[in-house]
Amino acid sequence: MEKILIVDDDENIRYSFRRMLKDKDYRILEVSTGEEAIRIISEESIDLVIMDVRLPGMSGIEALRQIKEGRSKLLIIVITAYGTTDLAIEAMKRGAFDYLLKPFDIEEMKDLIEKGLRINRLMRDRVTFPLDGQKKATGEMPIIGKSRKMQEVFKTIGQVAQSDVTVLIEGESGTGKELIARAIYHHSNLADGPFLAVNCAAIPETLLESELFGYEKGAFTGATSLRIGKFEQCHRGTIFLDEIGDMSPLTQTKVLRVLQERKFERVGGNKTIEVDVRVIAATNQNLLKAIKEGRFREDLYYRLNTVNIKLPSLRERKEDISELAQFFLGKYNQEFCRNVYSISKAALRRLKAYSWPGNVRELENVIKRSVLMAKGDTLLPDDIMLEEGDVPLVEETQISSPKETLESLIKKFTYLGDKGSRGPLLPTIERLLIIHALRETNGNQVRAAKLLGINRHTLKYRIKKYGIKMDFNI
Fold first, then answer.
1. Long-range contacts, 403-406 (Cβ 8 Å, 24+)
2. Under 8 Å CB-to-CB from 28, ≥6 apart: which residues?
3. Which end of the chain is more exposed for a tag (fewer CB within 10 A), N or C?
C-alpha cells in the first residue's frame, strides 16, 4: 500500500485530504510541522509528501531542503495560500515536484497525486538486465531477452548509462522503449535525481509546449498562476520524451535549444531558465523520412541521435517469446491469485507462430487474458486468443514450391495444437502466395501485386499484416 504524508498545521486541510482520498488504496499519515515530517520520513517508507509552506517552527521550504538531502528522489507537492512567483521558484529550486495554491481544485490535486505516485513507481522499480543465473531482486523489473539482438541492446545500455549523452531509442509500438529508457536512468550517474516520462503523442500539440516548459501567469486564457514545466521539474535528472516524432516544429525548436544551451523560457515569459537535464527520446517513426517531408528538424535529429538504440520487434527475436510468456504468466498469476503454472508445448508453438504486430505489449495482454480465462493449471492452445484472425506465421525457409506447400499444408496444419485447435487455413495460404509472388518478381511489389491480381496498396497492407520480411533470399 502506497503511503502519502500530509504536512499541514491546519486540521481542516488534513481532513479534506482524508476525505478526498478515502476511496483510494493509500495509507495516509499526517503531521503538523516540518520537524515531525523529517522524523516520519526517516522512520517510514513514504511514497509522496504534500506539504504546506507556512508551518509553525521550521518553514516548509527548509523542511523540503532537509528532506531532499536525505531522500533526493522523494516527490514533494508544495501547497500554499501565498502564491508569489518567488515562493514557487524557491520551492522548485529546492526540489519540489510541483505546487498548488490554496484553495486548490480537488480534481487537479487528485490528478497530481496520481501522477506523482506513478512517477515514484517508475523511479523506485529498478529496471535490470540480469546475467544468466542471476535472480531478480525484490522491486526490480527485468528486461527479458537472450536473443542476439537484445544482448546488443543490453551492451549499449551498459556502455552509455554512466555518461550523460543524449540517447534516441527507435522501435515499433509495444517493443518496450520506456523500459529501456528507465534502464539507462537506473544505471546512470543521475539515478538519484528525478525521472519524468512525457508521451508527446498523448498530449495535444497546443498543450505540449506548456507541459514541457511551463508558463507564466497570464500567458494565455486560463493561465491564472505560474506553472512549472517538466524540464524544470527534472533539473539534475532525466527526462524521457516518448514519441518525439509527433512534436510540433515550434516545440522542436525549444527542445533543440535546451540540448544546445541548457536554457529556455516559459510560455509567456522572458526570463531565461537554466536546467541540467539528460534527454532520452524515443520514436516509432522513421525520423529520416520525417526530415525529408519537412516534419522534423534535421539539427534536432542529430542532437538526439548521439547514441542510437534500435529495439527489435518481437517477430525479430522469437527465441525470447517463451521466456517472456513465462514471465507474464508468473506476473498475472500473482496479480489475479490464479494457479496457472505452465504453458503447454503446443500453446508455445502457437505463440511462436504468430506475427505479433503489437510486439511485447500484445504478448503481455494475450497472456494476461489467457491466465484469466484458463480452465486448468496449464495454458493450452484453446486458451490463447490472438488477433488478426489468429493468423499463424509460417517460416519462409519452410517454403519450397506453391504446389508442394499446398499439398502438405493440411497434413502439417495440426502443429499449432492438440484437441483440433488450429488457425484458419485461408490466411496462411494467402501469406504463402504473397511470399512466392515476391520471390517470383525479385521483390518488385508492383509486379507482385499485378501477379496476385491486387493493387500495390493492398499488397503493402498484407505484407505488414502478415509480418512478411522483405530480407529473405529471393
1. 405/432, 406/432
2. 3, 4, 6, 17, 18, 21
3. N
Q: What are phi and psi of 155, to 5 degrees?
A: -60, -40
* Grid cell locating 261: 544551451
User: Cα(first)–Cα(last) distance of the chain, in Å?
Assistant: 57
State the cell numbers at 221: 486564457
Joined together, the cell numbers standing for residue 364 give: 503481455
Q: Which secondary-structure segment (H or E) carries 60?
A: helix 60-70
Quick check: 50 and 6 in contact, CB under 8 A? Answer: yes
By the 8 A CB rule, do 50 and 63 touch?
no
pLDDT tens digits, one per residue of 375-412: 889 999 888 888 654 444 444 444 445 555 555 555 54
Tell me how far apart the alpha carbons of residues 320 and 300 are, in angstroms, rounded to a whole number. Answer: 34
C-alpha cell recorded at residue 256: 533543440
pLDDT in tens, 305-325: 999 999 999 999 999 999 999
Q: Which three cell numbers stand for residue 172?
A: 515499433
Q: What's the grid cell of residue 188? A: 546512470
Q: How would residue 200 be classed by pLDDT, with cut points 50, 70 and 90?
A: very high
The most confident of 67-76, 90-99, 292-301, by mean pLDDT:
292-301
pTM: 0.72
Task: Give SS3 for 204.
Answer: coil
C-alpha to C-alpha distances, 99 to 34, 52, 77, 90, 91, nearest whole angstrom: 17, 9, 5, 11, 8
Which one-letter amino acid corresponds to residue 343?
I
Q: Tell me phi and psi for residue 343, to 5 degrees.
A: -120, 125
Cβ atoms of 97 and 71 within 8 Å: the answer is: no
Residue 432 and residue 403 in contact, taking contact as beta carbons nearer than 8 Å: no
Q: How many CB atoms lie within 10 A of CB 264?
A: 22
